[in-house]
Amino acid sequence: MSENQNPQPSRDVTPHGGDGTLAQADRFTDPGVPEHKPRLTDTDPRSAKRNERLIVLIFLISCLGTVGSVVAYFAVRPDGTTEGVRLSTLLLGVAMAVSLLGIGIAAVHWAKTLMSNHEHVEERHPSSSSDEVRAVVANQFKEGGKDAGIARRPMLLGSVGLALALFPLSIAVPLVSSVGGDWNVSKFRHTMWKKGTRLAYDPSGRLIRAADLTVGSVAHVIPDVPAEERETHHWITEKAKAVVLLVRLDPRDLKRDHREGASYDGIVAYSKICTHVGCPVALYEQQTHHLLCPCHQSTFDIADGAKVVFGPAKRPLPQLPITVDDEGYLVAEDDFNEPIGPSYWERLK
């Protein structure tokens, strides 16, 4: 049976004939470009004008969002309380969202209603274009600018320019105003822990007795401070550096402490801040005694001084030395003996 009899359904790639040439099988018919359907703004000048005004309005709303973010930055500064920080962050976030969304929504609406939506077909051509082709492309860009109607809509052009020009202020003003701020990196070398500070559960603040912990127990720990202090901005900042993961092992499984004698009856306490980039390390595997960082999978062996056994981290987790007081509560014997978290300039260790 010849290839021309009972032809197979059309395909994108046709089979080769016996002599290596393409057989003359049926191919898919080029459907071509669908018929162009004009939009209302293409046929009704009043509709086009309404949409232009709407786009300008959205760009102006974006400008108000940018101005609002700058005003919020200076007028609503954190006052040291949790509520103050929350309010300042909320106002900045909402204002910047209005600014960015305004630019995005206005640009999309502009493209959908006023810019040219005619379909154009360009045949595939060699990568290296001739001078004539490049000249044609440059001319097409010029024609595209004309189709967009920018020259005929100066108000629209002005509003988009104003919105784009103002938006960087929402980022630049906070950055510039922070220049000359607190660059004292020595504060990273110390935390709230000190000799005699009791260990408390996070976030309840309930004190921890050594006798209440069973082998395999894991607790998220913070320093014990008065309840009223926990509402201050200072506490929030210092707590971020002082968070600790407490684990009770069978003393026979404990190979060594990162700090000699820093554990108590198999109970060890290590900083929760990964020494890679500072993510919270809190995924504990009881059988292997491994502690995993969920961000980049750095793995630390709690039974062996929290040394790194896998991942990009280069240093063990700092260990908090602990003991018990006269009432049986776990207390710190000292602060961490090295800075917590990832490396930074001027770090000595």
From TrEMBL:
Cofactors, names only: [2Fe-2S] cluster
Pfam families attached to this UniProt entry: QcrA_N, Rieske
Source organism, top-level taxon: Bacteria
Chief location: membrane
Gene3D superfamilies tied to this protein: Rieske [2Fe-2S] iron-sulphur domain
Keyword annotations of the record: 2Fe-2S, Cell membrane, Disulfide bond, Electron transport, Iron, Iron-sulfur, Membrane, Metal-binding, Oxidoreductase, Respiratory chain, Transmembrane, Transmembrane helix, Transport
Disordered: annotated segments: 1-46
Subcellular location: Cell membrane
Ranges that cross the membrane: 54-75, 87-108, 156-176
Topological type in the membrane: Multi-pass membrane protein
Residues of the Rieske domain: 241-331
Comp. bias intervals (Polar residues): 1-11
Extent of Basic and acidic residues compositional bias: 27-46
Record family assignment: Belongs to the Rieske iron-sulfur protein family.
Function recorded in the entry: Iron-sulfur subunit of the cytochrome bc1 complex, an essential component of the respiratory electron transport chain required for ATP synthesis. The bc1 complex catalyzes the oxidation of menaquinol and the reduction of cytochrome c in the respiratory chain. The bc1 complex operates through a Q-cycle mechanism that couples electron transfer to generation of the proton gradient that drives ATP synthesis.
Protein name: Cytochrome bc1 complex Rieske iron-sulfur subunit
Native source organism of the sequence: Isoptericola cucumis
